[in-house]
Amino acid sequence: MEIGSILIAIIAALVLWVYADFTLGRKKHLASAKTNTLPVRESNLAIFAEGPKLFEDLFSELKNAKEHIHILFYIVQDDKISQEFLSILKDRVKAGVEVRLMVDWVGNGLKRKTIQDLKAAGVEFAYSQMPKLPFLFYSSQVRNHRKITVIDGQTAYLGGFNIGKEYNNQDPKLSPWRDYHLKMTGEGVTDLQSEFLEDWQAAAKVNLLQNQAYFPSLEKGSSRQQLVPTEGLLLEDMMSDLINNANQSIFIGTPYFIPSKRVFELLRAAIKRGVSVTILVPLVSDHILVKEASHPYLRTLIKDGADVYQYLKGFYHAKVLVVDDSVCDVGTANFDKRSMFLNYELNCLIYDKEFIKKVKTILTEDLLNSRKATVEDFSPVSVLVSLKETTARTISYFL
Predict the structure, then answer these.
(1) Which of 178, 165, 89 is nearest to 366 (CA)?
(2) How do residues 47-61 score in pLDDT, each as one tens digit?
(3) 118 touches 99 (CB < 8 A)
(4) Which CATH number do you get for residue 142?
(5) Contact indicator for 202, 72 with CB cutoff of 8 Å
(6) Active site residues
(7) Among 115, 259, 276, 377, whose Cα sits 20 to 30 Å from the Cα of 265?
(8) What is the pLDDT of residues 213-272, one digit of tens each?
(9) What is the pTM of this model?
C-alpha cells in the first residue's frame, strides 16, 4: 500500500512538473518569438517531388559552390546517401569554400564520430534547439523543423526533404517517398540566407548577419513569392487567413492532418459556404498514433462534404496548401498542431499562377496514385483502435 501511494505521488509530481514546465516555457517563448513579416519577392522557382532527382540537382550545385555553403536540416541520417552528402561538404572545404551545417538536436541521426570528422575536416557544425533549463521539457519539444540550403548566396532550397535513405527511396517500408522541395534563385534567396544566419546565431552564438559577403546583389525572377518563417506562432494565423479567404477551392496535402480547433472550424465553414475542399494524406504512417489522431477530423470533414484521398504509391510526406488556384503554400510545416504551435518552420507563399499550374500537375498525378476515402476508412474497428484514438487526441499537441 505504501509503495502504491509513493508511486501515485511520484506520477502526480511528474505530471505537475511537466504541466508547469510546458506552460511557463511556452509563455516565455511566445514573449520573445519573432513575428517579422518578410516582403513579397520575385524569384525563379523549380519544384522537386522525387528524392533522387532532388539530390542529383542539390549535390551538383553543392559541388560547384565557390564561396560559402549554409545548410540546415531537421534530419541528417548516418547512412550511405548521407555520407555522400557529407563527403561533398568536406571536399568543398578542401577547395576553400566556407561550409556551415546545422541540424536539429533531437531530429538528427548523426553519430558523434561523424560529427567529429566533419569538424576535423573544417566544416563548421552546430546543433539547433538544444534543450535547456529551466524549462527542459518545453525546450525539448520545440524543434527546428526548417530545411534550408543556400549556396554562394545565390541558389537556395527549402521544402519537405531531409537527408537520409528513406528520402532517396531506399527504405522498403516507406518507398517511394513523395515530397515537395523548392529550388530558388533570384532575390528571394536573400531572405533564406537571413533566416539561416539568424538560426545560426541562435545555435552557434556567432552573428554573421552583417557580413555583406553572404548577400550578393540578386536580380528579380519570374515568380512572386513570400517566405513565412514561424516559431510556435503565426502559422495558425497564416493558414486561417488562407482558408477564410477561399472562394472556390482548397487543396491540402500533408502527412499529418491534426489541425487546431480554429483551423478545423474554418475548414468546416468553408465547406458550408460552397468551397470545394480536397485533402491528401498517406495510407501508411511513419510515426506512431499520427493516423489515429487524424481520424476524427477526417471523418467529420468527409461527412461535411470534403473529398479525402489516401496516397497509395509509397509514403506521402509533402506539405502543400493551394487556395483558389491563386496562392500556393509549399514549405516545411505539416498541417498539425506541432507545426502550428511548437516547431520552427519555414513556408513559401507563391502567387504566380503559371508556377501553381506546375504544382497542380504534380497534385493531379498524386491523386491518380491515391484512393478516395470514406468515413468507414477512418472509423474505429476495434476497442484497441478506439483506445489509440483517445490516446492520440490527448497528446495530439506533441505528435
Answers:
(1) 178
(2) 999 999 999 999 999
(3) no
(4) 3.30.870.10
(5) no
(6) 145, 147, 152, 317, 319, 324
(7) 377
(8) 999 999 999 999 999 999 988 999 999 999 999 999 999 999 999 999 999 999 999 999
(9) 0.95
